[in-house]
């Protein structure tokens, strides 16, 4: 039964995406909506991304210092390990898991409210492709802004590592800089950005799917938001495993 429901849900998702990924009826309106969504979904998420990344960078630095410190290891290993964790996983995967809670629930609640108040039905009556009109700008906006959020997250994480080293004295800035520069591979940044773009599509499309298919009243909108966040998180983790295997070979 669970397998049947999963296949049915996936089929409904594909049908909805077929309606979404079509040329907009009016490009000017589409770009105007997209810019609005860039601000709502991306720019408004910058403070939480910077704050969490700063403290996570500091915590990673502390943990690396406490757990891998050894007379046999050079001091720059702490900076090296901090950089690898931030670039390879945190600034893409973990950050998108956080955004799935913030952005995903927001999208589901917004579209779900429009569904239960019959605003989507009104668009359909007017001959508007409501799926394309409401969902495509959100997908395009988050996929466009997510590389900037990834770079901000990396910078804030490194800043947190420097700050904790400076104020606690657990390591010098010079040792941290050497570790950050040691055998640096630029491809890791691109891997993180590519994964984040894929995760952005998952967050916006899955959250929109749950909101678009809400049936009932306001209570169902809340349940749909919860289901959307859970589904987005699971799909992000699964996609992270697949993309990491593909991109890091």
Structure, described:
With 249 residues, the chain is mainly alpha-helical. It has one domain. Helices cover 84% and strands 0% of the residues. The protein contains nine helices and no strands. Helix 2 (27-42) packs parallel to helix 6 (130-168) and helix 3 (46-68) runs antiparallel to helix 4. The mean pLDDT is 88.
Key descriptive features of the protein:
249 residues; mainly alpha; 0% strand; elongated
The 3D shape can be described as elongated
Measured as a percent range, the helix fraction is over 70%
| Class by SSE composition | mainly alpha
**What separation lies between the terminal Cα atoms?**
37 Å
* Total number of distinct structural domains: 1
Number of strands: 0
The number of distinct helices, counting runs of at least 4 residues, comes to 9
The largest β sheet comes out as: none
Strand/helix succession: HHHHHHHHH
Beta-strand residue percentage: under 5%
Overall pLDDT confidence: 88
User: Ranges with pLDDT <50 over ≥5 residues?
Assistant: none
**Gyration radius over CA:** 21 Å
Layout of secondary structure:
Blueprint (H helix, E strand, L loop, with lengths): L1 H19 L6 H16 L3 H23 L8 H40 L2 H7 L4 H39 L4 H9 L5 H26 L5 H30 L2
Helix pairs in contact: 1-6, 2-6, 3-4, 3-6, 4-6, 4-7, 4-8, 4-9, 6-8, 8-9
Task: Report a brief summary of the structure.
With 249 residues, the protein is mainly alpha-helical.
């Amino acid at each position: 039964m669970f397998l049947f429901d999963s296949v049915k849900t996936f089929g409904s998702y594909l049908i909805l995406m077929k309606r979404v990924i079509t040329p907009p009826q009016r490009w000017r309106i589409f770009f105007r909506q997209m810019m609005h969504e860039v601000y709502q979904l991306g720019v408004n998420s910058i403070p939480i991304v910077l704050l969490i990344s700063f403290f996570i960078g500091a915590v990673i630095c502390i943990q690396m210092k406490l757990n891998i410190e050894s007379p046999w290891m050079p001091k720059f290993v702490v900076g090296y390990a901090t950089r690898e964790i931030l670039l390879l996983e945190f600034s893409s995967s973990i950050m998108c898991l956080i955004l799935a809670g913030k952005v995903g629930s927001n999208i589901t609640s917004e579209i779900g409210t429009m569904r239960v108040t019959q605003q989507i039905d009104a668009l359909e009556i007017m001959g508007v492709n409501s799926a394309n009109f409401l969902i495509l700008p959100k997908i395009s906006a988050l996929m466009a802004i997510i590389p900037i959020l990834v770079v901000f997250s990396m910078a804030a994480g490194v800043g947190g590592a420097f700050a904790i080293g400076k104020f606690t004295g657990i390591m010098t800035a010079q040792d941290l800089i050497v570790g950050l520069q040691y055998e640096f591979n630029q491809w890791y940044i691109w891997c993180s950005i590519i994964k984040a773009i894929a995760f952005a599509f998952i967050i916006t499309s899955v959250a929109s799917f749950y909101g678009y298919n809400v049936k009932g009243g306001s209570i169902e909108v809340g349940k749909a938001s919860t289901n959307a966040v859970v589904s987005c998180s699971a799909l992000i983790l699964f996609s992270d495993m697949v993309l990491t295997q593909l991109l890091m070979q």
